[in-house]
Recover the amino acids of this structure.
């Protein structure tokens, strides 16, 4: 097998990592740094205009590892289809789905699980027709109430079993690193892995959402998890996606990019 | 089956819930409120003196649902044995074990899992001889790095399978409510459940450790989880354990006790 560990063409920069940047700045910054792939969130694509965004990205020769994100089921079908259209317009390899948490005022977790499954099933024919694979991303269990009630790879794999063709997984090391069943569930996922994301778990973590670490600054054994993912045959892009209100979002984005590239070579 | 839902003799107050109180104040406060069981942490027992603590609790006619806590493996054997002795001295029905997180500087989660298993195995003969059941408490996955690397009931059940007699589980709704496998793993636990703890998951949660809610103030379907636990045959005490630096720890403890009692009747 080719040694991929230092292949910079595998690095994708998620737009959340350089949050102050517009899509145009992200594209220019990546080109300047020799980074060949991005994973944009919808806000910057919509702000630029979806069709123009597609041209800009293609014109710069960049790949789009995935599009972040749709979901938060039960969502209006129309919103999900719009996200599929946008993902297609920018040539994203997959559309990341976040399950959504408990409906407001509800404590019915099993009911929320059913709504998520039914919501994805309802979106799936449209996504299949558009040629956009849907990537279910299990989020860390600390988001079960308010962001995503799919919190383990086992649950996400079960959903894939139920939903069939056109649905796969987004594996984010931050969300799944703690799972004692990690190796088995990544192996079970196999070809379903559509996109792989990394950042790091800081000790201490000061905020449930916005205190994620640069790869190498925390406790996640990223190289081991990457090896599990690549053992399934995945040799796609690796997104660095960092939510960090008090640190990385306050730095000069070009400098953040430089450090991402360096860490990609050394610890991712 | 007897309807236990409003039986106040099943309520136990964990000393962490009324953190400003000494053991003496906790005992007096519970007796005054008609609460018949407590779950003390080691700090207040040691501050009172272990032998005197046992006399105080017995003299007041209180039960001790569990003793919090030992563990943080790999721990010195001596420390674990001291915790067993203290649990025996105060008549605790079990000693709660917290696994401990990653050793400082380590990213080897699988290695930490092995250390925890070996640490419990090393303590077990002493605990068996002392007649103190060990209750492994899986903590929420957000504590995997720094507090406990046993984060699911499935993992804790596996440990019980491996370790055998003398080891059971502490089920805390706060730590396990999100788990899609919850019902199955509680059923699997069966008679292993030694103690059942409750508090609530707040939305938003502002701190990973110290922002837990009073039962009823969050999103956990406590009555459903209790029903799962009681379906195993468990009809023991229910501990209310709340870490709440910015709210409940700032209130008058007697008032907190009154509200615990009320919520025990209505939502636990």
């Amino acid at each position: 097998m080719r040694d991929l560990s230092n292949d910079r063409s595998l690095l994708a920069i998620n737009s959340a990592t350089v949050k102050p940047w517009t899509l145009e700045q992200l594209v220019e910054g990546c080109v300047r740094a020799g980074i060949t792939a991005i994973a944009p969130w919808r806000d910057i694509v919509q702000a630029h205009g979806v069709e123009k965004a597609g041209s800009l990205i293609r014109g710069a020769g960049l790949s789009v590892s995935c599009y972040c994100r749709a979901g938060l089921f039960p969502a209006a079908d129309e919103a999900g289809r719009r996200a599929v259209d946008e993902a297609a317009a920018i040539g994203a390899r997959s559309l990341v789905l976040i399950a959504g948490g408990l409906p407001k005022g509800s404590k019915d977790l099993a009911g929320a699980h059913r709504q998520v499954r039914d919501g994805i099933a309802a979106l799936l024919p449209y996504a299949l027709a558009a040629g956009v694979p849907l990537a279910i991303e299990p989020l860390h269990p600390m988001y079960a109430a308010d962001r995503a009630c799919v919190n383990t790879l086992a649950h996400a794999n079960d959903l894939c079993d139920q939903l069939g063709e056109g649905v796969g997984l987004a594996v984010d090391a931050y969300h799944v690193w703690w799972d004692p069943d990690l190796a088995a569930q990544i192996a079970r996922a196999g070809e379903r892995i559509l996109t792989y994301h990394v950042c790091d778990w800081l000790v201490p973590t000061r905020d449930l959402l916005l205190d994620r670490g640069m790869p190498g600054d925390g406790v996640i054994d990223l190289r081991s998890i990457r090896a599990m993912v690549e053992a399934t045959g995945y040799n796609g892009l690796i997104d660095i996606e960092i939510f960090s209100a008090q640190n990385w979002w306050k730095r000069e984005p070009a400098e953040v990019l430089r450090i991402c590239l360096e860490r990609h070579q050394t610890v991712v």
